[in-house]
Design goal:
The chain has 377 residues and is mostly helical. The protein has 15 helices and four strands. The strands form two sheets. It has a two-stranded antiparallel sheet with strand order 1-4. The chain has a two-stranded antiparallel sheet with strand order 2-3. The radius of gyration is 22 Å and the shape is globular.
Amino acid sequence: MSTKLNFLGGKSGLISLLILAALILVIFPLIMGAYQLSLTGRFLSFGLVAIGLVLCWGYGGILSLGQGIFFGLGGYCIAMFLKLEASTPEATAIQTTPGIPDFMDWNRITELPWFWVPFNSFTFTLIAIIVLPAAFAYMIGIAMFKRRVSGVYFAIITQALVVILTILLVAQQGYTGGANGITDLRTLKGWNINSDDARMMLYFITASLVLAVIVLAKWLLNSKFGRILIAIRDREDRVRFSGYDVASFKAFAFCIAAVFSAIGGAMFTLQEGFMSPSLIGIIPSIEFVIFAAVGGRLSLIGAVYGALVIGFARVLFAEAYPELWLFLMGTVFIVVVLFLPYGLAGLYEKYAIKIRAMLPGKVLGTASSTESSEVSS
């Protein structure tokens, strides 16, 4: 059995990456205003989650419906730091207990909880954005994969964990802000994140992170780890019988996807100015999967386009047809699964091959044999 390895191999992959870089680093900033650019930056933060899903779902066969957990962990980590920065004694002098977040004061909490204290440090916050999601994903992964839980069962369990986290965040209103979440985030180390200049800078940071994450994920897939991960997806029992620790490989892929999601959550929070349970529940977690499916679950770059296309479509249609938008999302997912299993990237590859066939061999070399690779198992 042979399976297409990717849509990003060889020269065509480099060209695709350069096109994406030109689009998000040059074209969008030139044609969009500050608000539209900030909105696009939020879609790119979703793209980070989708890239992680391509890695663990498309190449590892690990369908997670709980990426909202890690998106939320990253978002809440940076939100806690920003909230503490905005909760100085001078800024909260009218509160019963100055120096703590306003929602804690409303809930009659008189002292900053111990788990909030480390988030006074920006360095700790950056480390936590990476370490906390990775550690949580590792615990979930080892617990599930060691017991050989996979497929639809793993997907359902991760979705259940999203529900549990959402309920916990809402219930612990005094410590998490409840259903409203952590709001009114204004500055980062004294830098006003709500200004137009800041929004543009945050957009470029997000776009750069997207490109860096694509390169990192591509490097992982081209390594021995990537080849084993694909083999696990296609013939897990054979890989296990060959002496490899399948659970550890799958857990590592799941951890990498979790870290990508957390970075996306942190960048989304910086650009949106708040983080709440509504952004990490079942619906957002399913939307992340749809982004990856529409873009192409075997395409790292396609995942970004999927997030952008669905994001802009939601803006265009959700306001006009708010009751029908979720049905439309479901329909899109069904159509993609049934008729476009490789999403937008599959369409691109299909027509790119036809175009190559019509061009002289000297123009593009020996067709696509150097531009796509296969894995046999």
